[in-house]
């Protein structure tokens, strides 16, 4: 979609007004109203007005979660396409949950990376907290893998390298994601990976021991389940291993009939690597799904692993052809 600047909109409105205000379309009237609001705010306060939902035209639902939804949207003044993630405040039982949401804002504002979803702005209404983020037209990796059952190694390798590079960047900023999973990895229209949803993330201090049990059951690292505290960024590496396993085999490595059994299987790292993927891929998975975090591969070791040495550039991979 072509982007139209605010000055261009103003010029257009002046032209339309000269032809008679009665000829303005409802959309043009809305734009005119917003421009008047902005001018008034600069005159009276010397700054732009606070953003409200009135600045956006809300479209179809792109996804739903436990606490809210994501809608396609267009900024009425600039005509920029975006996504609006709305989180319903009624689901917040106490102040700590609101604090966690605002912590996600802090983390997203700290990140500027091609493989992390971009936060444009955020604002609140009486009932919602709203994040305005970039659109990822390719959807999430969960649905992408489901539609294809499993991914070829060249394609999985291309996507996985981007996931690891996004984690390397986060970790360099002392950001721990703690919920790496297929659902939280988006694709833009060009097939570029965009890591999203830092809702249970944490800005980690040096040598900080954490005790919170958070994440998605099938992806949680064993040291979190042992409930003896955990350090550092190795939990994200474990979860990325589950993601890679799911991409290559079409299923997660750990399954059970109940939560207790699932946790026991994860803590034992009880999984099987079938020989229908390459030896190098299986070796990398072993290093990622290592139950001892001290022996688990680090980011630099992952990127220098033999399986990762001949990765295609995203522009060379056709992600949406089949």
Explain how this protein is built:
It is a single chain. This protein is an alpha+beta fold. The protein has 3 domains: 6-45, no CATH class; 58-133, Phosphorylase Kinase, domain 1 (2-Layer Sandwich); 139-316, Transferase(Phosphotransferase) domain 1 (Transferase(Phosphotransferase), domain 1, Orthogonal Bundle). It has 10 helices and 12 strands. It has helices at 6-18, 26-45, 95-110, 141-148, 153-172, 222-225, 234-249, 259-267, 279-288, 299-303; strands at residues 56-64, 68-75, 81-88, 119-124, 128-133, 139-140, 175-176, 185-187, 193-195, 202-203, 209-210, 230-231. The strands form 4 sheets. A 5-stranded antiparallel β-sheet has the order 1-2-3-5-4, covered by helices on one side. Strands 6-8-9 form a 3-stranded antiparallel β-sheet. Strand 2 (68-75) and strand 3 (81-88) form a beta hairpin. Helix 5 runs antiparallel to helix 7 (234-249) and helix 7 (234-249) runs antiparallel to helix 9 (279-288). Mean pLDDT is 87; it is low at 1-20.
How are the SSEs ordered, and which strands pair?
Layout: H1 6-18, H2 26-45, E1 56-64, E2 68-75, E3 81-88, H3 95-110, E4 119-124, E5 128-133, E6 139-140, H4 141-148, H5 153-172, E7 175-176, E8 185-187, E9 193-195, E10 202-203, E11 209-210, H6 222-225, E12 230-231, H7 234-249, H8 259-267, H9 279-288, H10 299-303
Antiparallel strand pairs: 1-2, 2-3, 3-5, 4-5, 6-8, 7-10, 8-9, 11-12
Helix pairs in contact: 1-2, 5-7, 7-9
């Amino acid at each position: 979609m072509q982007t139209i600047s605010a000055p261009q909109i103003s010029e257009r409105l002046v032209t339309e007004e000269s032809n008679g205000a009665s000829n303005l379309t409802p959309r043009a009237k809305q734009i005119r109203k917003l421009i008047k609001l902005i001018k008034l705010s600069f005159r009276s306060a010397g700054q732009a007005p606070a953003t409200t939902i009135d600045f956006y035209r809300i479209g179809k639902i792109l996804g739903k979660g436990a606490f809210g939804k994501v809608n396609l949207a267009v900024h009425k003044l600039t005509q920029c396409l975006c996504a609006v993630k709305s989180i319903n405040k009624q689901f917040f039982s106490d102040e700590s949950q609101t604090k966690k949401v605002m912590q996600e804002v802090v983390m997203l504002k700290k990140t500027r990376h091609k493989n992390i979803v971009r936060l444009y702005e955020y604002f609140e209404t009486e009932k919602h907290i709203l994040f305005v983020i970039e659109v990822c037209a390719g959807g999430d990796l969960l649905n992408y893998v489901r539609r294809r059952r499993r991914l070829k190694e060249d394609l999985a390798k291309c996507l996985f390298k981007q996931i690891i590079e996004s984690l390397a960047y986060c970790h360099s900023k002392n950001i721990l994601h703690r919920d790496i999973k297929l659902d939280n990895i988006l694709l833009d229209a060009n097939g570029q990976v965009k890591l999203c949803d830092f809702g249970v993330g944490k800005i980690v201090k040096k040598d900080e021991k954490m005790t919170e049990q958070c994440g998605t059951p099938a992806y949680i690292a064993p040291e979190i389940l042992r409930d003896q505290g955990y350090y550092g960024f190795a939990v994200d590496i474990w979860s990325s291993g589950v993601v890679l396993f799911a991409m290559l085999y079409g299923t997660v490595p750990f399954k059970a009939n109940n939560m207790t059994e699932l946790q026991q299987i994860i803590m034992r790292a009880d999984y099987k690597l079938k020989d229908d993927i390459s030896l190098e891929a299986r070796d990398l998975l072993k290093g990622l799904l290592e139950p001892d975090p001290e022996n688990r591969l680090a980011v630099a070791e992952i990127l220098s692993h033999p399986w990762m040495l001949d990765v295609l550039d995203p522009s060379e991979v056709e992600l949406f052809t089949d």
